[in-house]
Recover the amino acids of this structure.
């Protein structure tokens, strides 16, 4: 991790060298970055066989050199140790320097200038052979140059390899113009053509992809580099924190085969530390976190999650072994972990899963103020499964029943005298993503009572302990179950459940009586001190209410009708009739029912109810009629 020593910037010169920095491959990201912008460059295939065309593009973007040559030993001395310890040191170079390891001392760091005042250039002349700083021979000359305003950045490198040392007494400036009228500059341009590795060598070399290490901006920091501090004119720039960053001839370098990674970075939402304090992501308060070597290795090295190779005993004690942050470390190591571990954990999670909830992926550093906020969905998936920041970005959720509803009723109950004793309630639950990738279902509130909303009218019956309010986090799946369908009002008005109050504050996505929605986190979940981070999160609060519509008025019993009697039968006439027999009598047909009298057939559709038996008698005209049996038949 390459944090800037001031509150506003960061650096380490990781100009990678052939066969000298093993394993400098870019960290893999499942979500591929977008194609490189043209940035006004001429669409052509760069001639990568020498530096001429590349240098011309760099010169156009960064300015012409003020000096055609430079001397390495004019730079500031870089030592690897103040506490000699054999092959180990307290400030290793973070590179493998051949057979002599990472503690070869006496490199030089030098500032160069161009015609553009906002261009910064730093040269590091390295030694891979142990010895005193009395010779001009070096084994590596590496150059980083970047324009703070445009973000245009170029890298050049020269290596001695197995041949003679590089002459550091008169090094040609790679920006020298071969068409210059100045004799020295023209000669420097000719020398630079053979001195520096051609672009195709940088591109195709296994370990020469400069943007693998310089993945978040041109400048990097380590204890080794920052021993040349701000009091020295040669110190590495510390004011590129939010600057644009892109590679000159980026289409060439990031294209196949063996492409350099496109500069890219990530950050996270606000994090709660081990002390319960909510803070913006500390790891990106003074610099960006790149998605290649920074994510892959430097983060762990900077916080002692992985020991920095070749460090001696002095560098392995607290606080020296925690390189980051460069200031503000607690006195005790245990307090360091409480303060910073959760921040480191979140940023490393976003390194691996930039699409996760709580992450922002800056895939285009030409627009460093914009990025894509993670939605929790793996590339190509529609399911929300990934989250990197927990227990922050909370929003309050309240669930309620329409205030005019008092008690529940059964579907057929329309009586004005039914006691209002059955509570009307709706339960709800929360399915939450956990840090181990699993989920848990929450059915109770902070006080341990069921998550449930019930009628709150003064006449509503008490349903027992319950909690209608709870905080939800990003990625929570909220499910509101339907309450009872039928209900009474305070005066026995009839109501029926119609659904939930769907709105931005209750964004139900499932139709029907059950309401379900997924939360995204508070809109201020990302809250960097550098300024507001626009995040399309949740509303300030969720408020879901179960709605009921009027369904009529209640009914009172008829005082003149005995309980259970047919309203169409005169009082007292049913006394001699068996229960249930009226059901077969047509409406209005009671008038033809006889208790011993003559009943013509047409009068009652063939249905008779008699005290005695039923008999058939002739009418005298060939027709028959049925009537109730009595002692004396009626005369015909």
């Amino acid at each position: 991790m390459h944090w800037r020593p001031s509150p506003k910037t960061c650096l380490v010169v990781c100009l990678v060298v052939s066969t000298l920095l093993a394993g400098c491959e870019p960290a893999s990201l499942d979500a591929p970055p977008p194609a490189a912008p043209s940035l006004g460059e001429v669409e052509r295939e760069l001639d990568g066989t020498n530096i001429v065309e590349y240098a011309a593009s760099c010169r156009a973007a960064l300015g012409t050199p003020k000096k055609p040559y430079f001397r390495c030993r004019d730079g500031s001395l870089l030592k690897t140790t103040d506490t000699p310890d054999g092959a180990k040191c307290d400030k290793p170079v973070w590179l493998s320097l051949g057979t002599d390891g990472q503690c070869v001392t006496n490199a030089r760091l030098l500032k160069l200038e161009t015609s553009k005042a906002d261009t910064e250039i730093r040269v590091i002349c390295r030694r891979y052979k142990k010895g005193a700083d009395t010779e001009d021979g070096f084994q590596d000359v590496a150059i980083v140059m970047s324009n703070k305003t445009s973000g245009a950045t170029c890298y050049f490198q020269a290596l001695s390899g197995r041949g003679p040392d590089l002459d550091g007494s008169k090094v040609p400036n790679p920006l020298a113009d071969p068409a210059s009228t100045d004799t020295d500059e023209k000669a420097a341009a000719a020398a630079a053509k053979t001195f520096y590795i051609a672009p195709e060598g940088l591109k195709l070399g296994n370990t020469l992809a400069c943007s693998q290490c310089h993945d978040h901006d041109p400048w990097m920091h380590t204890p080794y580099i920052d021993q040349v501090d701000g009091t020295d004119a040669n110190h590495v720039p510390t004011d590129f924190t939010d600057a644009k960053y892109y590679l000159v001839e980026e289409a060439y370098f990031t294209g196949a085969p063996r492409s350099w990674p496109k500069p890219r970075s990530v950050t996270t939402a606000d994090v709660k530390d081990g002390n319960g304090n909510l803070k913006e992501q500390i790891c990106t308060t003074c610099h960006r976190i790149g998605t290649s070597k920074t994510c892959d290795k430097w983060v762990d090295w900077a916080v002692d999650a992985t020991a920095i190779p070749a460090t001696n005993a002095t560098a392995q004690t607290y606080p020296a072994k925690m390189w980051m942050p460069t200031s503000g470390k607690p006195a005790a190591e245990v307090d360091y972990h409480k303060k910073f571990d959760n921040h480191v954990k979140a940023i490393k999670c976003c390194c691996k899963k930039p699409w996760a909830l709580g992450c922002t992926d800056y895939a285009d550093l030409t627009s460093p103020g914009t990025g894509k906020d993670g939605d929790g969905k793996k590339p190509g998936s529609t399911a929300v499964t990934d989250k990197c920041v927990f227990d922050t970005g909370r929003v309050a959720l309240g669930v309620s029943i329409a205030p005019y509803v008092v008690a529940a009723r059964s579907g057929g109950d329309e009586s004005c005298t039914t006691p209002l004793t059955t509570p009307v309630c709706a339960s709800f639950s929360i399915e939450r993503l956990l840090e181990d990738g699993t989920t848990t279902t929450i059915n109770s509130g902070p006080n341990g009572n069921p998550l449930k909303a019930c009628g709150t009218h003064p006449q509503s019956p008490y349903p027992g302990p319950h909690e209608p309010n709870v905080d939800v986090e990003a990625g929570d799946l909220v499910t509101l179950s339907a309450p009872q369908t039928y209900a009474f009002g305070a005066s026995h008005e009839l109501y029926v459940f119609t659904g939930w109050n769907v709105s931005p504050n209750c964004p139900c996505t499932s139709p029907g009586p059950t309401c379900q929605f997924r939360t995204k986190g508070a809109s201020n979940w990302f809250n960097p001190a550098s300024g507001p981070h626009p995040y399309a999160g949740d509303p300030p609060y969720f408020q879901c209410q179960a709605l009921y519509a009027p369904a009529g008025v209640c009914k009172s019993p008829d005082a003149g009708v005995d309980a259970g009697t047919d309203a169409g039968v005169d009082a007292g006439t049913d006394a001699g009739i068996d229960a249930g027999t009226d059901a077969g009598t047509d409406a209005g047909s009671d008038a033809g029912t006889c208790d011993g009298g003559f009943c013509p057939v047409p009068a009652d559709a063939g249905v008779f109810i008699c005290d005695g038996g039923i008999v058939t008698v002739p009418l005298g005209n060939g027709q028959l009629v049925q009537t109730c049996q009595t002692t004396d038949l009626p005369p015909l």
